[in-house]
Fold each of these.
Amino acid sequence: MSVTIYVPRDSSALSVGAEAVAGAIAVEAARRNSDVILVRNGSRGLYWLEPMVEIETAQGRVAYGPVAMKDVASLFDADFLHGGRHVLCIGPTEKIPYLQKQERLTFARVGITDPLSLADYAVHGGWKGLRAALAMDGATAVKQVTDSGLRGRGGAAFPAGIKWKTVLDTSADQKYVVCNADEGDSGTYSDRMIMEGDPYVLIEGMAIAGIAVGATQGYIYVRSEYPHSCQVLAEAIALAKAGGYLGPDVLGSGKAFELEVRKGAGAYICGEETSLLESLEGKRGMVRFKPPLPAIAGLFGKPTVINNVITLASVPTIFANGAAHYRDFGMGRSRGTLPIQLAGNLKYCGLVEKAFGVTLRELLYDYGGGSASGRPLRAVQIGGPLGAYLPEQQFDTPLDYEAFMAIGAMVGHGGIVAFDDTVDMAGMARYAMEFCAIESCGKCTPCRIGSTRGVEVIDHIVSGLEREKNIALLEDLCDTMLNGSLCALGGMTPFPVQSALKYFPNDFRAAPKRKVA
Amino acid sequence: MSEHEQDRNAVISRVLEERKHQPGALLPILHGIQDVLGYIPREAIAQIAQALNLSRAEIHGVVSFYHHFRTSPPGRHTVYLCRAESCQSMGANQLVEHAKAKLGVDFHETTRDGAFTLEPIYCLGNCACSPAMMIDEEVYGRVTPKRFEEVVRTVKEAA
Ligand SMILES: Cc1cc2nc3c(=O)[nH]c(=O)nc-3n(C[C@H](O)[C@H](O)[C@H](O)COP(=O)(O)O)c2cc1C
Ligand code: SF4
Ligand code: FES
């Protein structure tokens, strides 16, 4: 009997050698006349164990990791094909505490299935949501999304149902569904994991959105920094089309939905929805004034649903299991689950999908295992480069959009980047300004010029030049950017800067006086 | 016209033919050209302008807006080092200094032997394995200075 072996082809797993491991397993199996089937799955998101190899046994899957090419022969010697003991053996995958404690709805299949196998997808509950949506009229379908309480996972947390309803209620000869797969925030990778690890769930979510609001064309705008994601999506779309899940007659319903991947070109601002639409139209990614909302006049001036990857990928489970099932996870007005991404200086960086309400401390220590360096954690940044830096005394904040707002922070896309006590917070504040200067679309003066001035002022402060005066100037500059910018790039770059100043003032002293601790 | 120029023009014409009818065709066209030629030659701008009925200034405005597009040929390989926060928290700044010293170039420059162009990049979605880099389209994680040197050597020898 042949044995099934899983080796991820997720780009992060590949980045630490998964391709070489897969190759070595194939060679070794052939040499020993072992009958194996090699499946290239997505990553389970336990990145400190990647490349993580799994073996299908009668008792379920058994995991080994992190596996290097040089370990492969000894794994065969230890009879890992039958779950044999070996120093790299983690035991049954499903029993790993990191995974066991999660609530995976959107990520239910990631790491389990072959991302491109339509059969695998169907066996694991795929297309159920789409079938349910096809049996509803548009208003009923949109109401499902509203009732689920789903809010946009791309940053602004706007209720998805309201957006969809606006598009449904606006009449037009053509409507669009656009997936925002720009994922430019540092510390975030859940969009990438979905695109590479379970692309059909995104395709299904977009098809449901199209059927619900009456849009027949969809675009996925993927950042150029993600070549692997582009490739997997293009293959998945072709296969879904051939299988009748996309095209002029979705599942024989008589309804059409076409889908295309479009590649960005390395501009952070193109994650902002109106600038993304400009880019899709073939222009410079300059932010548009709102109104009109994209839901009324979006891509090529037509009503457009624009949602983040995770928002759209959460839709199939809502349609397959009911709005109430999804809504029952979470707290307050933050319903359902959030794929949280642990990054930076943590021992166990990885993806944790949990209902809203889990605290930062649980995430950083119970899941993340504390710092990778073994030193105390000093600051965490949440919600990407525009997110505030939080010190230890805020670690008991529960993950909830409103609770974060209350402490001047944001959940954003759910990326958490941890820093140990060697971090220089004035340096991080300077980087925030520098990043804004590099990525500004240039439309407003406070953002375009203010960010460059911000870098200079911080340089003056840390070199001890008229410190008090320059700190006042920096605060004033932050205020101007906050109030005078058209979009959140200029408007929120002050958040990391102000929070660094507020919680870590000693870092903003001239270098010799700093860091005696 | 040299053979090289003929080839280049053939690529540009083919890409234009394939993609100019798509809605919002400009980015797909620029990608199509850069994927093959490695950059957007000046001649392409005029041809695209004609095919899409736009001014050359408009095309130039788009090309210069996006960090990904370049108007001069890069080295045989492009090394993208991640400079974003997660990678910084795991030592990216030191890695950047090391890489610049080893390759003998600054960002946006090409090594003297034409092997590598060094570019900054802001997150590769590989933050769980920081610090990260990408060479051409391959991503590398947990990059120490030593691993950097090994990878660069291997890539160069493979060419
Ligand atoms: C500067 C800036 C960058 C953004 N980048 C992204 C991004 O990379 N991905 C994303 O989904 N949303 C991003 N957004 C948010 C989008 O503008 C928009 O809110 C989102 O696409 C809406 O989808 P959602 O409601 O499903 O979140 C960004 C916003 C701003 C202001
Ligand atoms: S705040 Fe900055 S990025 Fe946003 S519209 Fe203004 S200039 Fe452009
Ligand atoms: S911050 Fe470097 S890969 Fe994300």
Amino acid sequence: MTDIKINPFNITKAVDYSDEEINNYWVDISGGNGFIDMVKPLSPMPVFLLGGKGSGKTHIMRYFSYNLQKIRHKEDLLQQISNDRYIGIYLRCSGLNSSRFKGGIYRQGAWKNIFSYYIELWFTQLLVNIVFDLNDTHKNVLLKYENSICKKLYALFDRDVSKEFDTLKSFSDFLQKRQKQVDYDVNNSVITGQDINEADILVTPGRLIFGFPGILESVIKEFKGIQFIYLVDEFENLEEYQQRYINTLIRERESPVSFRVGVRWYGIKTWNTFSGNEDLKVGSEIEKYVIDIFLRNNNSEFEKYAKEICLSRLKQSGFSLSKLGSSKNSLSSYFEEFDLDKFFKKLNGKEEKHSKSYLFKLEESLKKQKAAHIESIINNLKYDKNPLLERTNVMIFYREWKAGADLRKASETIKSDCLLYVSDSSNKNLAHYKVLDKFKYDLIDQLHREARETLSYSGIDKIIKMSAGIPRFFLMMLKHIYRWSIYAEENPFSGGVISEKSQMNGLGDASKWFLEDARAAGIDGKLMSTSISKIGQYMQEIRFSNIPSESSLSSFSIKMIDIDEGIEKTLSYLEQYSYLIKVNPTREKNSITQRVTYQINGLLSPHWELPIYRRGILHLTSDEVAVIFKNCTELEYNSVKNLRLATYNAPFRNLTTPTLF
Amino acid sequence: MTSASKDYTVFYKKKFANTRELKADKSYDIFVSGYNDSRRVRDVFHDIDAQAKHWIMFSEYHYTSNEAPILNSENEKIFSFEENLSESAVIRKYFEECGIDFASLNAICIDITGFIRPHLVFLVRYLAVLAVKEVDFIYSDPIKYVKGEQTDFSFDYTHVRQIDGCQGLHNPETTNDYLLIGAGYDHLRIMDVSKNKNNTKKVQLFGFPSLQPDMYQENVLKAYKASEETVSKIEEILVDEDNTIFAPANDPFVTAQVIRDFIIRQNTKKPITNMYFCPLSTKAQTLGIALYYISECLNEPTSIIFPICSRYSKETTEGLAKIWRYTVEFNNI
């Protein structure tokens, strides 16, 4: 297998797949309640599939399209579609280039009329193309219906168009001609600065979109009882009034037509319709799913799903792997995992100024405070046999320092406790037990950082966890990891093991990509970027302080009353772009205060050296919320931050000016 | 989309070592330039021989009234425009306000160096609509970009849209759509436009030979940062014959020719369903894309699209290496 050069995870976006690949790579959630149950192609109820970038919307939408039905049903397509009882008419809103239908010298109402007409022509052409394709596949079997179809089509138009077409081909040409006329008029208007002639609109909104499928269903016997599903993807590309128009079509849909809408989570600009200015009603008029939340809430299912995706990619690329679950060849065995003993050996091989920098730093701090018996204190805290215990000694010492204890005595107690812990690590009364029970992984990460080593996030299970329910993130991480592993000549998935280093390098690249990629546009986007950087750095500084208040700090909470309109918008952006993951609401102990809790997306964890698992929660004060999630000066931000950090870092007193708020 | 015999490389271009040479070579009825802080833009404006000289102040540079250029003679004029006007509105307004019938002039010169790209594209489209016969376009090569590949060009991105006047007659069939990006240093904008047309096959047009020897490498380094959006099926290869084409960074005519050849080649393999161009490389290549568009893409499923930003750097380069003059014969293009 050494001749394999193509990265099996190279394609991370469904748009880059051919129809065949979409079909081949299709993986659903196991055990029912998966994507098929979400889309429900036989249900007349329209469905909105929301999701972050890379959540798999396009893959799902395309899977139900006619092109994929054709691949699945190689034999007797027409009969098989009749058996399917639906035809998926897939369209990407980006192809409409719809931003041209706005602005300039025209009234909003005029643009709405032009756009709705354009949609009639566009959707109907897509369906005509499917009918042509079916007809070609079945040697003109549908031509016998042409005459009846055309006669019924004439009635859908507001003007007599009987001389314009008499076959499906001429109907298609007619639609294309009318569409080009609209394109030409819109284009010309910006050159001349003149108005568009609206009188050329030949059909009432909805007449073709609902009428043409209705005619096909009633005339073509093989179409009897089937549903025509418009799979409207990339809905976020539409302007607000355009979404409102499509919402209106959805609300006023007529059988045999239904809709499935794929849209970025942040891409819904309105739920409103032009029908009495009312919103679409979730439950009674539409169903709505947020795919990444759905996958995150089904943790174990997502884990299986992600592994299936990985195996499917490897299989399609020619790798030979035994079925997942076989202990010898399970996916986990291809990824090196963190080994504490190995890490200790690595530390031992380093110069003490790096491997024991925490002792040097402590010594410096004590000197600054002109403390007595420094040498003796440091010697008491040393424990060369086990860096983790030595680091624990230092953390406990900082706690004693903050508590105002006699430092020399404290160091002596720590020394004797350490030895007791070595002889009996199950003694729950020892400070070492308590600290390690809660902060073991934080201290290991501290040791990494202090020794200038990259933090470890290795192992397939951690990688899946970091992807936060978003398949594209998972594939992106694997793509970069594989690339680094090939570079290191590790022979990944072909007998070799992917080293921790390759995994770290790959995750670092994926993390950087995500941070840059998920930028929102405009002023809001700028505030969002600043906010996520601030909260990430904030938690990083707290986590690597002398005595972090919380263990496994990757989450923070905000009091509901601190969330004004601006902060709400920023948080909502951050959540919808998947920077933040909302955690179930909490209530402060012994308090009626309601808080909302967020976790930093695991893919961003390497960027700020945060853990991917969630344990402690940083409860932000009102001042902190304001300086992190609103525009403020650096002085204001630092002032608030320093106030907080002063309680976590020696000498544990605030040396800065009081908060400005 | 393309006839068999067209050859853009026959159009005339000339290189000048400095503004003195340019001045001595030809005089003009009118000279138009987009104002910014670049020395290469100001020197050309100052030295060129023209009966009328017009500065266009693009609001995207955000000059305050105190920063307006100083006029040296009565034949110089400034045209300013309010913010948030589209490129078509700005260019139409300029022609209305200047009141000059360009079609009746014999010698027109436009320095495109300081132009904002969508405005430049629409200007070319508009000049063709106005039936102007011939225009000399000037483009000055810089010696270097101020911060090499770290130079910032555009800020405050808002959205991607078609450039006015270059909105094609598109197909609902989108299975073989292409996006050809004139790939410059501004990798964030490459990402923005690629994401907007994410279902297209991406082809990058690189400036090679580049304006200066080191610029090609800088350019590719920057484009690589956007490779997650632009390269898909090819294993880690950014510069590859399937997804990259090359044209000299300072030659619009070869640029137009190279694009033309590429499109003929692709259409032979499999008909392109929709074509999108995005000019993010040099202004000379932007001119090339615009010329190809007005010559062969009107009434086709082809658009020029652009990631719109509300702010641009007033100065991104240092020095003036050479001045190029491209003579566009609109009636022959």
